[in-house]
Write a structure and sequence with these properties.
- It contains 18 helices and no strands.
- The protein is mostly helical and 451 residues long.
- 58% of the residues are buried.
Amino acid sequence: MSRQVRPTLVLITCCLSLLIVMMDVTIVNVALPAIHHTFGGSLSTLQWVADAYTLVVAAGLMLGGAFADRFGRKRIFMIGLLLFSIGSALCGLAAGPVLLVAARAVQGMGGAMLNPVALSIISNVFTDPAERAKALGFWGMMSGVALGIGPLVGGVIVAFIGWRVVFWVNIPIGAAALLLCARFVPESRAPQPRPIDVPGQFLASILLFCLIAALIEAPHLGWSSPVSLALFAGTLLAFAGFVAVERRVQHPMIDFNLFRAPAFTAAMLIAVCVFTIFGAFLFLNTLYLQDVRGFTALRAGVATVPAAIGIVCGSQLSGRMLARIGPRAPLLCAAIALLGGSLLLIDVHPATPLIVVLLAYLVCGFGHGFANAPISSAAMNGMPRERAGVAASLASTGRQVGASLGIALGGAFIAGAVGAQQQSSASHAMWWVSSCLALCIGALALSAFRR
């Protein structure tokens, strides 16, 4: 006899996977200066430590969703938890930067099987639209909590224990999620799963790798160096090949027909914009607090608490607004807050009053908190339940692509800057870019969504 499904316990289980995935992002950012002190290397080394994870996740999300729809969401979710925990253990044991980047890639393989699959599990358990919106609101709040506590927890661990332990905290949480998943999460799969698009998956991976590698390495090798030109050429060729393949295969990895719906297209573009801003925000402000202002890891973690408060409060308000009036209003709030936070950071320098910096963090946190749940809801609403894995994977892919771009762009702007004053001045260009992206978010929200 089948067990009775307990939606609350299913939601908690899925949120535990979200906790380790999102908390890991901000913990690692706080630990980057300590990792650099241990291993040395250039700024690009730190970018690869941060981007190796998001790049692999972005490349593998569609494949993870397809596997989940075909082989069972619960099964793939549990494999993802196991891989992520193993990758976390290897990160803490890494003896050098290359091994650390490789271990981060293992984490990414696990991460590609977690968040999108968890979202599709939630979508299949919470079938009522209002209840689903509430569940997604709680999901967004947990994302805010995870992102918020990450810097503080990371700062405490780096200051009193060591940076390696910031990876090991994922292991007990992952084990708890595995046990809960085995006991309470029902198995589900698509009635008619689509064949896996191997050529499309390969070309998408090459496209993302070449683009991110070019943005990370070109500032150090030279924008006109043979390697940089080859990476940019590879990006264009992979993009052209991907579009050509996806238009010809019977079952493409990305069904371009989905993008005929304005709301879905807007949700994907907004996801990229929001997480480009937030990826750059996490990366640049970690370096600003510790390298420019000379904060310890613990003090830097404490300084990011306003961002955590903003994320949590914004997520709660966003979830309520989403359930009552839809995604348009919370996305507009997100655009206004992200614009305000970016404008506050445009003129930041080593002697900027700390209260101004903390206010910028609070406002940026609000913006990110307001955006998360509406993105997921807008991407999945209107999709048939059997396509939940595809829709969730596309939404998460947009997030990870944006985060990778944010880290790569932020690093590209400050590459070569020497000294605290130069580094802070060089970051101003990224905040101008972020301001423009925030305006794009507002325009998309106004044009694609109705009240």
